[in-house]
């Protein structure tokens, strides 16, 4: 749990970013490219990347980010500077301008939790040539993995903002449930590690992310501008796209497969896990695995009712089910 402590003036200084941060998106997209289950809603992106992407550039970027921003308790904050709010060029300039003392300290923290290869030594020492090569590689990776999908990403961010930022700052914080729980004056954030962050009048910057999944992520250094990057709500985007009739569902529906299509159909107007198991003649554990995937894909919602959980189809789930019939 991350506990963010608000004090005088922090609510007024809290804001939600108008667009994704390009460096954070690169870090998260690398995670999505290398994990076993990247979520069904990202499957069309993955399919297109693997079919049409620049393989050499993508593999090179993935290798680079796997070392510099590994999964785990820490990766260097200099990779995601606040200048990312002003776009890719400003962010890369900030990386090249990182003070040598900071690079040394952050690379040491990285090495303490994840041993680094020898090729990172010039970066840790602040070598101008090494930093220039790093930012050039990041620019190429961004051009291959993020930039071609800007329209889709920008629309998703706009939709997320419209839903979250309509009722003032406190309404915004309350609307972050279940990712975050606003208990004034503390914002509790679902987080992989236990820590406290005191804003001390600096306010909080909330940054939506298209490629972040499950839990938000914050900068490691509490002295840096307080920032929390959170996964945007993909189902809102699908609702908007379905309403406008601009989204072709066939490719995504084909990814469901017969078994998950059957689970989605068996939900009907709503069903518990045990009811689904009886309807399908399957074990409750097998059904639970499928409903977890469908829920993370934005096709089902799950609500606990006593000792049972009730599954219901979302608008996207109903539309996809119709497209497979």
TrEMBL record:
InterPro entries: ArsR-like_HTH, HTH_ArsR_DNA-bd_dom, Metal_resp_trans_reg, WH-like_DNA-bd_sf, WH_DNA-bd_sf
Pfam family, one: HTH_20
Recorded coiled-coil stretches: none
Keywords assigned by UniProt, alphabetized: DNA-binding, Transcription, Transcription regulation
Keyword Transcription regulation included in the entry's annotation: yes
Cleaved signal peptide residues: none
Gene3D superfamilies xref list: Winged helix-like DNA-binding domain superfamily/Winged helix DNA-binding domain
CDD domains for the chain: HTH_ARSR
The HTH arsR-type domain, residue ranges: 250-321
Name of the protein in question: Helix-turn-helix transcriptional regulator
Organism annotation: Lentzea alba
